[in-house]
Amino acid sequence: MGAGLALLASAIAVAQESPPAADPRVPALGQLVVFTDPPGAEVIIDGAALGPAPLTARDLLPGTHLVQVSWPEGTATVSAVVLEGTSTPLRLRTPLAPAQPASPPPFIAPLAAAPAISAPLPSPRSAPAYKKWWLWTAVGGAVALGVGLGVGLGVGLSVSNPRYGVLAF
User: Fold this and answer.
1) Residues 37 and 83 occupy one common structural domain
2) Which of 46, 87, 50 has its CA nearest to residue 65?
3) Into how many domains does the chain fold?
4) How many whole angstroms separate alpha carbon 94 and alpha carbon 10?
5) Using one digit for the tens of pLDDT, what is the confidence trace for 106-146?
6) Which of 51, 62, 97, 115 has the fewest C-beta atoms under 10 angstroms from its C-beta?
């Protein structure tokens, strides 16, 4: 009886040490974190009222979810995609809120504070002549003319010509 009890106790200890294997057919759930501007808007996801924003909707199935956000000024409805095992942030602004200008990053000085340019801008330098198309066209023409003259004179003044020394064309 004692050996059976010890065997049962060791089986229970092994079962407690190893977590159960996850079912591969069940997808990992995700979550949706909803932020609103201004905060406090009522959030409804897939028809279920969840409360005021900011909030985190946990244990959502992966896929597309319908998110409705209501402020006293109006309502916004959007679709949000939740991926397996991830947290998806969603930021919404009241539809009637005035758009606020984006502030520049702190490392960029505003244009009004920039010093004025006192010296005239330098004129753009033109490319050197060897980078111009017309120079290489002229060089090609001169080479073609030289080759043509060389061949013509070579044939005209050849030794096999009966009138050697006289150009005969």
Assistant:
1) yes
2) 46
3) 2
4) 60
5) 555 555 555 555 566 666 677 787 788 889 999 999 999 99
6) 115
CATH number at residue 62: 2.60.40.10
* Structural domain that includes position 134: 130-169
- 14 domain-assigned: no
| Length of the chain, in residues | 169
Return the residue matching tokens 């050849």: 158
Query: Which of 93, 110, 139 finishes a domain?
Result: 93
Which tops the pLDDT comparison, 15 or 138? 138
